[in-house]
Amino acid sequence: MMKKVVADVIQFRGSHYDFGFKQGELLRDSILVKNRERQWKVRKPLFKIEVEETKQVFQRLAPPIWEEFAGMQEALEWPMERVLLEFGGYRVNIRPSGCSIYVGENFMIRNYDYHPKTYDGRLTVYQPTDGGYAVIGPSQKITGRCDGLNEKGLSMGYTFMNRKRPGDGFICHMIGRLMLELCANTEEAVDLLKEIPHRGSFSYVLFDRSCGKPYIVETSPRRVEVHRGYACTNHFRVLTEENRHNLDDSKKRLEMIEGNQGLSGNEAYHLLNDRDQGVFSDLYGSWAGTIHTSAYFPKEMEVWFALGGDQKPYKFDFSKWLNGEDLVVEQIEGKVDTDIPFVNMEKADWFR
Description:
The protein is an alpha+beta fold and 352 residues long. Helix content is 29%, strand content 28%. The protein has helices at residues 16-27, 31-40, 51-61, 63-76, 80-87, 172-182, 186-195, 248-258, 265-273, 318-322, and strands spanning 2-14, 100-103, 108-114, 122-128, 135-140, 144-145, 147-150, 155-162, 201-207, 215-219, 224-228, 231-232, 282-283, 288-297, 302-307, 314-317, 331-337. The strands form 2 sheets. Strands 1, 4, 5, 6, 7, 8, 9, 10, 11 and 17 form a 10-stranded mixed beta sheet that branches. Strands 2, 3, 12, 13, 14, 15 and 16 form a 7-stranded antiparallel beta sheet that branches. A hairpin with a 4-residue loop joins strand 14 (288-297) and strand 15 (302-307).
């Protein structure tokens, strides 16, 4: 069943506190928050959120993001525990997912494969005035970024590896946000990934204007390894002891990408977004269906974004936005072949 899906384009320039307040206002009576409330009736968190511990971690690494949580708290009129449970990105659980990433000579393209009931449906463009780089990218859990490009030309995407033995630390989308907001290039991002604690096991693909061959950083709560490569799916090449048992689908997608190196940005976009090419996934019920395809061109500062497969991408000029020219598109539309409800658009619970 082909379903029309939408994502809102959220643009903001200002302090983190004001950005948090604005997001809280947008969320307050939204179907997304009502769905999350229903979901918590079934899916109880497995541990208590430690507010002071989380605050100290953010104060050390990225104090302005704590201010964003404070702004959200004021607008939503929630206790801070709930803000952190929903949007904190530290010591909360992450569900398994898919994802494929292809890096070419001057671009990075990724398929974000996940479950519709978890998807924010937001492309966020934010320029902070109180520290940190401006970033464009889709949000996850509102405050995190599942991929993106910053004003310095650093692009990032991650892929899930496993849920084995989680540790105390940040989860993937908050790590993505921290890298894009704090790091000017791939080297700084690699250093940050080595420094911060990791909740789960993910690979982060990092590409910038001067990078040449991109970095793939394999992370787990136990160790971090760095190598170079142009393609990444859902298994480690170095931390092989951390891999899941069944890697057939991940290896098949990786072979498809590696067998098609040397493509132009447009060709690579279609390799990932066209449903008949073997990389796009329809496995929405298994937490691994392709929800969006995004493409980042750091030299041109251009971003392409599409919801669902076989789609013509929306194209955004990030450099013009950085110079004060707002994006004219307010909502992105696409089509996805699933009857599973999208949490930002329709009633969604975990009873079924």
